[in-house]
């Protein structure tokens, strides 16, 4: 059995959070560079140039990619052969509080009614930590900072079972209504099926997939989104979405939940495999 110490875990989560905030994944950088190369709109091209320069500065200077450093979502996969003698939630919160004060991160977490700020990016229910239990000795942590500009544009609908053809329309209407608010070019995650809450989780997980992995249905949706002409930062152009990803689950015979989760160009995500 593998034993992970708390100090080792906290140190690595600190590094993981910093990496997620300062270094954009390679697949996203490549997608943005491709969008710049193909862009025919001069205004959009200048916006994409600014985004790429922003990415370069953040990486070199170790600055956050965006002033909205987001709220934090963690997915933890842990195998039954891993020995943990500490509270993983508490350890992740300790790491997040440390990075909030040292990178620094903007304190974004508030009470939903009083709006009182916790000042350290933790609070009831946040960070959002999901555990996945597996066989063997896997131990991996995935972190996903999510900004409000894109999150606020996400939507969920409980369609009727006969409304399969409305799924594409709902995705397009969601992106069109969002316009420039989520700082396009965006990544669109779609969750189809499950329950009300499962569809939302599916859509968020879909947005985390590598951008170059689109099947025919996803490519069709992405092409349709890009015909909307919203473009970089909502100023018009050829590329509104870098990718559209869909996750599906079986659902009740009498329902058809569909969720759309939008991610901005700052597609921040990072993972660490401990074992």
Give structural notes.
The mean pLDDT is 96. The N and C termini lie close together (11 Å). The chain is of the alpha/beta class. It has helices spanning 6-22, 26-38, 42-61, 88-102, 148-151, 166-178, 196-206, 216-226, and strands at 2-4, 71-79, 82-84, 128-134, 139-146, 155-159, 186-194, 241-251, 256-263, 270-273. The protein folds into two domains: 2-24 and 63-146; 27-61 and 148-263, no CATH class. The protein has eight helices and ten strands. The strands form three sheets. The protein has a four-stranded mixed β-sheet. A four-stranded mixed β-sheet has the order 6-9-7-8. This is Fumarate hydratase (Fumerase). GO terms for molecular function: 4 iron, 4 sulfur cluster binding; lyase activity; metal ion binding.
Kindly summarize this structure in a few lines.
With 275 residues, the protein is of the alpha/beta class.
- The helix count comes to 8
User: Which blocks of ≥5 consecutive residues have pLDDT under 50?
Assistant: none
**Helix percent band:** 25-40%
Task: Count structural domains.
Answer: 2
Structural class: alpha/beta
Strand order across the largest sheet = 4-2-5-10
Q: How much is the radius of gyration in Å?
A: 19 Å
Strand content: 15-25%
SSE succession: EHHHEEHEEHEHEHHEEE
Count of strand segments: 10
Let me know the largest β-sheet. Answer: 4 strands, mixed
Average pLDDT taken over every residue: 96
Q: How would you sum up the global shape?
A: globular
Note the gap between the termini: 11 Å
């Amino acid at each position: 059995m593998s034993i992970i110490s708390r100090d080792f875990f906290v140190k690595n989560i600190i590094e993981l959070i910093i990496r997620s905030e300062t270094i954009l994944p390679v697949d996203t950088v490549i997608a943005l560079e491709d969008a710049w190369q193909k862009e025919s709109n001069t205004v959009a091209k200048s916006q994409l140039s600014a985004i790429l320069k922003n990415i370069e500065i953040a990486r070199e200077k170790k600055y956050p990619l965006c002033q909205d450093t987001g709220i934090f979502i963690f997915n933890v996969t842990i195998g039954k052969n891993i020995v943990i003698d500490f509270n993983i939630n508490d350890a992740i919160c300790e790491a997040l509080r440390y990075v909030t004060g040292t990178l620094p991160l903007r304190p974004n977490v508030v009470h939903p009614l009083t709006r009182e700020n916790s000042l350290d990016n933790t609070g009831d229910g946040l960070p959002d930590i999901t555990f996945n239990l597996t066989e063997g000795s896997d131990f991996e942590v995935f972190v996903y900072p999510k900004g409000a500009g894109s999150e606020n544009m996400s939507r969920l609908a409980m369609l009727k079972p006969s409304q399969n053809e409305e799924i594409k329309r709902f995705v397009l209407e969601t992106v069109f209504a969002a316009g420039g608010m989520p700082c396009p070019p965006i990544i669109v995650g779609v969750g189809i099926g499950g329950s009300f809450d499962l569809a939302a989780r599916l859509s968020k997980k879909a947005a985390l997939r590598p951008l170059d992995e689109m099947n025919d249905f996803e490519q069709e949706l992405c092409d349709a989104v890009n015909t909307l002409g919203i473009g970089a930062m909502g100023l018009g152009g050829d590329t509104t979405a870098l990718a559209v990803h869909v996750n599906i689950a079986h659902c009740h015979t009498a329902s058809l939940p569909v969720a759309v989760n939008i991610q901005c160009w700052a597609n921040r995500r990072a993972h660490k495999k401990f074992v």
